[in-house]
């Protein structure tokens, strides 16, 4: 099992990352909550990781903090929640916000995340209830990394691709980005605003 990676950030195209560790390039998928904390391409980055082994692939997931990884692992234990949906949940809310949603049993808020219907939201709340206290313990190993600023020229297209990969339908992704767009915004800021807009809607 690969527990963490510490190396040079070679590429970032939400939700995909490429990290060069002593000449070996590791491909990872990461939630937007992690992307918000990434340094610029070429800088050093340290991420907690979780390896998912499938019949057709081994997929490595990366997280900026131990708290994010713990929540991801807990979500995978919920019936009907796979890695893609767990990434979507982490992209739409911080660990603290998600735990508050579970404590409040806010089904409506969870159903705003792509791929989560009412039945899945209710199942997540029921099955995660007992995990809330354990997950609420102080986070360990969170990387204190300055936010990155991407190239504005491709920010729209990268943000669009990221939203679609998180489960939003193309017209919905385009609508959210149109509402969030301002000149000069980075990819991560565009996605952050779009996800905030989706949560309010």
Question: Would you mind describing this structure in some detail?
Answer:
The protein is an alpha+beta fold and 201 residues long. It folds into three domains: 4-63, Beta Barrel (OB fold (Dihydrolipoamide Acetyltransferase, E2P)); 66-135, DNA polymerase, domain 1; 152-200, Ubiquitin-associated (UBA) domain (Helicase, Ruva Protein, domain 3), CATH 1.10.8. The chain has helices at 32-35, 66-76, 83-92, 95-104, 107-110, 118-128, 132-135, 155-165, 170-180, 187-200; strands at 4-13, 16-21, 24-29, 44-53, 58-63. Strands 3-2-1-4-5 form a five-stranded antiparallel beta sheet. A hairpin with a 2-residue loop joins strand 2 and strand 3.
Strand order of the largest sheet: 3-2-1-4-5
- Overall SS class: alpha+beta
CATH topology of the largest domain: DNA polymerase, domain 1
Total number of domains: 3
Average predicted confidence as pLDDT:
82
**What is the CATH class designation of the largest domain?**
Mainly Alpha
Question: What is the fourth-level CATH superfamily of the largest domain?
Answer: 5' to 3' exonuclease, C-terminal subdomain
How would you spell out the order of helices and strands?
EEEHEEHHHHHHHHH
The geometry reads as globular
What CATH architecture of the largest domain do you see? Orthogonal Bundle
Strand content: 15-25%
Give the total of beta strands: 5
Give the biggest beta sheet. Answer: 5 strands, antiparallel
User: Which parts are unreliable, with pLDDT below 50 for 5 consecutive residues or more?
Assistant: 138-153
Helix content: 40-55%
| Tally of DSSP helical segments | 10
* C-alpha termini separation: 39 Å
């Amino acid at each position: 099992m690969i527990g963490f990676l510490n190396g040079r950030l070679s590429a970032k195209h939400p939700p995909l990352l490429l990290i060069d560790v002593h000449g070996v390039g590791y491909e990872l998928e990461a939630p937007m909550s992690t992307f918000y904390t990434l340094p610029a391409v070429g800088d050093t980055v340290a991420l907690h990781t979780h390896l998912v082994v499938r019949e057709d692939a081994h997929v490595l997931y990366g997280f900026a903090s131990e708290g994010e990884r713990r929540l991801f692992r807990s979500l995978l234990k919920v019936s009907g929640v796979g890695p893609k949906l767990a990434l979507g949940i982490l992209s739409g809310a911080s660990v603290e916000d998600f735990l508050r949603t579970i404590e409040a049993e806010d089904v409506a808020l969870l159903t705003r995340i792509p791929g989560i219907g009412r039945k899945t939201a209710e199942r997540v709340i029921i099955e995660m209830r007992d995990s809330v206290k354990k997950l609420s313990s102080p986070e360990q190993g969170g990387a204190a990394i300055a936010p990155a600023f991407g190239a504005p020229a491709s920010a729209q297209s990268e943000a669009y691709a990221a939203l679609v990969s998180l489960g939003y339908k193309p017209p919905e992704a385009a609508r959210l980005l149109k509402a969030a767009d301002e000149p000069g915004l980075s990819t991560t800021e565009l996605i952050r605003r779009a996800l905030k807009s989706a949560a309010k809607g």
